[in-house]
Structure formats: C-alpha cells, structure tokens
Model the fold of this input.
Amino acid sequence: MNLRSKISPTLRMARDLGMPASAEPVAYLTAYCRRLIDRWVHDFTPRSLRELLDTVAAKIGVMIEEVHDDRDLIEISHRYLSQGEGTFARITAELDQRTFALAIRLRRSRNGCTHVAVIDCRGSKYARRWFSMWHEIVHLMLNPQLELDFRRTTAESKDPVEAMIDKIAGELAFYPPMYDSPLLSSGRPSMADLETHRKLLSPEASREAAYATAVSRISRPALFLVAGLALKASEQRALDSRRFPAVPPTPQLRVLRTAGSENAKAAGLFVPHHYRVPPSSIIYRLFHEEIDSSSDGIYREVENLDQWIDSTGRSLPSLPIVVETTRNGTQVVFAIITTIEPQ
Ligand SMILES: [Zn+2]
Done:
C-alpha cells in the first residue's frame, strides 16, 4: 500500500509545499500563502482589497467570472464555448443551489491564465462572493497544477481540505496589513467608521463580513453582534426532532452571531449566542420599530450589560456600555458594543 495515501490530504499538501515534520499543516499553509501575498503586495502595491485580489489572481493565473444573474451565466458559457472550451457547456447545470463556485482548467491558456473561477453571486450567495473568490484563489495557490480539470465548491462541505481552504481564505480576504486602518485604531469605533472603512478597502465584501472582521481587529474592547428573530436553542432542537410542543414557540429577537476584539472578553464584553435582546435595549427598539428614524439610520445609546437576562433570570455582569445599532435589510440588525472607560 502506498504510504502517502495513509496521511491526511492537508498534511500531504503541507509536506508537498515544504513543511518540516514538526509543524502544524493549517498554520504552515496559511503562513505560506501570506508570504507569497506579502511579496506580491511589495512588488505591485495594490491600494484596495479588490486590487489585491486582482493582483493575486493575475499572479496565479486565474480569471474570475462573476455570475450576478442567469444572463451572465449564459453569456460566460457562450463566450468560452466559442473559444473552444467545451467544459463551459456544463456550467449552467453545475452551478446549482448548493454550489458557490466552479474552477475550470482551460484547454489553452489565455493572457497568462490557466484557470477560470466562476463565482455564483446570485441571490443569497451574493453575501459570500468575496469569500468564494478567495476560496478559489487559495485552492490554486496551494495547488497550482490543480489535478482536476473541473472542481465545484459546495455549501456545508465536511471535507477537511475544504474547511482548511475556507480558514485560509478568511485570513486572506481581509489581508491584515491593508485592513488595519487608523480609522479603527483611534477612539470609539462607530458604524459610520466601519462603513467608510469597508467602502474604502473592500466594497465587494458583505457588510456583515467586513464589520465583523474590522471589529475583531480593533485595539480597544469592542463587540459586533447580529440580532434577528430566532427560537431558543432548546426550542429549535425540539422542532428539528419533530417533537412539537402543545403551544408553538414564538421566535424572539436573539443574538445570532458575534465577533469580538481580542480584549473584549477580558473587559467583560461577552454576550452568548441565542441570548435574548432585552426590550429596554436600543437594539430591540430599533428592530421592533419603536423609535423614530434618524437621518443616517444609526442609533446610539448608553446602556448597561446587566439588562441582558437569560430565561432563568440570571443577568450578564454590570458593565456600562455604548450601543450603536443599525438595520441590515429587514431581517437583522447590527450592533457595536463598546465599554465606557473611566476618565
Ligand atoms: Zn473548495
């Protein structure tokens, strides 16, 4: 039996790229990609994250095609077919509900490119497109020859290589040296700052992904949270297992996702997932339209974290906070929570 077939694919990939025996594959491969990108940034000095993505795509020889509607898909398919690339006859059928992207090797390279990444940006996949592009780029950075001529990236893949590629893509999509802007390092971060920062550096990224990344890199304690209607974890489990209660549970405004700065937890800024947003909070009042509209759609209030109470009546620790909140569409609200430091 071939010994190579026994080791995990991530380990094999890392070893093929020169990893010493003692190293950890994901960390090694992330650092490997970072080194390449650092060098290209030095050589080509891109000014925004989009320029960085275009630079990296050119260096590894991949053309990125974005599909925003069905017409785009047909146009891309026809364009490559007319150039003798028969594989493109499949792309309309292959880009199904579960598929985020396709990577296709060209029969004949074009403008120095050997591959095309077709990124599905239609409907709900739009929010993920920035990561989808980076995902395909990372595949090619780690495996320039790409054994396969055709590869699909699908939702919720359990494949360890896919999980690793996602992790590296997440690191690179908001390339830290360009994403650390003075805008965020001075003073209290605001929604307006986050939006300016996003537009400047990564207008392609979704607001949620860009804000969460920015807040996770802020130097002062800060927490970004997304709230929307949801059931309690136990209610959801009961529904999932089809044990329907006599009275159907009502979804409440709850914390869906959070991203904290490195020192947020140490400063006491922590709200568990699924925690109910208290009716006294500006976040709740904005979501339920209990407040008058402000011109910029951003609302700020001084609150205390001890307003947050779980179903057993226990509250979060007392901590004076500034809460800034805004809507994102009709389903969720965003909030940034920062501490109030004594003068
Ligand atoms: Zn993939």
Summary: The first strand starts at residue 62 and ends at 67.
